[in-house]
Amino acid sequence: MYSRFFLSLVAASVAPCAIALAQQGSGETVILDMVTVTATRADRSLAEVPQTLQVIDRATIERQLRQANSAGALLSKFVPGYSVGNQTVSSASETFRGRNLLVMIDGVPLNTPLRDVSRILSLIDLNTVERVELVAGASSTWGSGATGGTVNFITRAAGEDSIGVDVSTRLRAFTRDFGNSLAPEVSATVHGRSDSIDYSATATGRFADRTYDGWGRELASDAMLGQGGGDRYAEGNLSARLGHDFDAARRLELSGSYFYLDQDPDALTDYSGAFAAPDFATPYPGESLREDTKSFSARFTDDDFVLGGLNVTGFYNDVEKRFSFSTLSIPANSIVYFSGDVTDPTSPSNQSVLFSERLGVNVTIDSDLDSLLPGLSLTWGTDVTHDETWQELVSGEDLFTPLDQMSYAGFADLQFQVLDGLTLRGGLRYEYLELSVDDYIRPAAYYGFSTAPLFGYVLPALPVTGGDFDYDALTFNLGAVYAFDAGTEVYAGFNQGFGLPDVGAFTRRAGVGFAFACPAPNTNCALPPGTSVSYAAIGPEAQIVDNYEIGIRSAGADYRLSLAGFLSRSDEGVNFDPATNTISQQKEEIIGIEATAEVDVTESLTLGAVAAWREGRFDSDGDGKLDRELPNNRIATPFHGTLWGEYRFEAGTGLRLETEFMTGRHAFDGTVDHETESTMLLNVAVDQPLLGGDLSLSVNNVFDTAYDNPTATATRNLAVPAWGRTVTLGYARSF
Length: 735
Prior knowledge:
Layout: H1 2-25, E1 36-37, E2 44-45, E3 53-56, H2 58-67, H3 71-78, E4 101-105, E5 108-109, E6 129-136, E7 149-155, E8 163-174, E9 183-194, E10 197-208, E11 233-245, E12 250-263, E13 267-270, E14 277-283, E15 289-305, E16 308-322, E17 335-337, E18 352-368, E19 376-393, E20 398-419, E21 422-437, E22 440-442, E23 445-451, E24 454-459, E25 462-465, E26 467-483, E27 488-499, H4 503-509, E28 518-520, E29 533-534, E30 543-556, E31 559-570, E32 576-577, E33 582-583, E34 588-600, E35 605-618, E36 628-629, E37 639-648, E38 654-662, E39 665-668, E40 673-676, E41 679-690, E42 693-700, H5 710-716, E43 726-734
Parallel strand pairs: 4-7, 25-29
Antiparallel strand pairs: 1-2, 3-6, 4-5, 6-7, 8-9, 8-43, 9-10, 10-11, 11-12, 12-15, 13-14, 15-16, 16-18, 17-23, 18-19, 19-20, 20-21, 21-26, 22-25, 23-24, 24-28, 26-27, 27-30, 30-31, 31-34, 32-33, 34-35, 35-36, 35-37, 37-38, 38-41, 39-40, 41-42, 42-43
């Protein structure tokens, strides 16, 4: 049903635009600066890539910085298809096209594939970013994880000056309580060049106090249960890059980033009411939520390599993520690690820390085969990655078994310019994975159904048998792009991406079912000798996602336009089902339309729009029919977008108005009744040149609209109030 609807809808939407722009292209040709992207692992112009791409430039990033240093907010407002940000230090339930987003910095992935967690985008300091490249739709170009899309944050390079310094400071507050909600930020960047050496380094520190909703109520510090909130944290980011040009063709570049965050809640969160709220009567007893992550990379490029352009990148990620402490709260948090006392079942150690180390090498060769066939080129290479991941309770007890995985991949993409304006591209990637799962004992847990009267189950400690396993993924891509002129292209493509099973989730939740449980309060429960659960029972396989899309993009001297439609399909899942101790295998389809527009009405006035609609269904009973809507934690707002206008006065003053809009959704996935609400928000920002720098003042949610954040609400199926009106004052200057 969705497939036929998608084809007719996209054809009706895209075809008229293609005809109109083709006719426009028959007039005077406008010469534009060529925009190149690294989406294909080698520099290519947009006119050569048959995929939906978007490049967010530094000017747009600076506009976002005047309002908030938030990568999630940047994507939410300027990238069609990306979900509404949840306004916390986490990016839980923030999806792209209803699926996962692979996040990279300078081509180095930050995701933790063996235990999928959400605190990634909040680590990105926009002060360090020169531009953002986003590839929409499933892709395996950079490996696993990009079932919905890929975003690459490219850090700022050194300028041509011998030395330069950029400084900025911002202060945010909620109008409901200025004094208790102050959130300052200070950032400094030093960059320079000396002969063949260039460098850039940025340090940023920011803090946050209390946060408030449009009703004037203080927001909870952990509304999404373990994910953390947007209040009471201190964050520090360090980023540095050093480059050396051996000659005009060869270059070595070293880079490193350090992310640190510490959130210290005052109170626990009450999940028992109509919405998540601070429980001021219960002081927070756990350790703080923390992020301590380091990433290093070394890149060597040689444009005169005998086989073509060579790029060799080695990287190492060292990740530590500590989550929030939580107590038994039915039904929001019905499973906790067991204290041994059913009258107070939550263990004092019911708080975990995830550790992950990732070491990898990516080799890319871009070979020009024009001598064999004019217009032919081949991009090929190999990736080798080692992942080691483990998770512990704060007491030091293993939460799931330590996991060790080697990944070996080879890829090749062939590009052929058939005739003037028409480019074909196709390729494949094969990835082979070796997974080692240690034996371990899952800690005892408590599964509660009610507290008055007391009713629940004790889940005794359970041995989990590991072993050595292997699985693989073979993915393909094929597409064509036709350029009418220097600024207009129509494209169509088929791309596959893959996601890995959440291996850590299985071993963490192994045996969380009634077959291994005893009713409480009778806790004299012991498992029969030799009882265990085997990891081999789930049969790990990669989830293959097929993405079909068609689109058009056009850019002229005074406009930028794009329109695309997509269909995303998969037959397997990657989520663990504790009832069956297996990976869920359910067919899914998601369809959508995405559009962007930016028009320079005059030299002073620019208008723009970003909009997307998407919807999805899945097969709930395995009969092959898509009988239920995907839950809201996949698609919380079917229609979402931003309308904006920016005017620059003769004196240099800039005025920007933004309207964010989102529609609600009522979906039943078979177990839980989900609902989100429609909302429209107004944001205003003003900037003024002052003393050689830029003074800015922004007001977000101008009317202090009271609403529930749809993405945060969908994470735990509990209403989570959104931010009320905030005011941000900032100043930036370069020396």
